[in-house]
Input
Amino acid sequence: MRVLKQVTLTFDEQQAVALTAPEGAIYAELVLESDDISSIVSARFKEDGTSPTALEGMPLNHFSVLEVKGINLTTFKIIATQAGNPQRLNIQYYG
Output
């Protein structure tokens, strides 16, 4: 495998956002960065194609590392849990 693309996705609590994987991607490594490192849950995600909310979905906190593979690259969605605290998701796509 080789790195195809590296991006940073900034998102907030207003709306869940999806990944935009480059053609040929089969795997992604994601690292969440939060300005509020005291928060227990900074973001939530789902991989089934439905949108997470501030209270529903798998929790992530500052410096959480997540692997997303295969079809889940197209169904993954993430949202921030706190108003006024945008999050950054650093993503490396592999193919």
User: Anything to note?
Assistant: The longest strand covers residues 3-11. The helical segments are 72-75. The chain has one domain: 3-94. Strands lie at 3-11, 17-18, 27-34, 43-46, 58-60, 65-69, 77-80, 87-94.
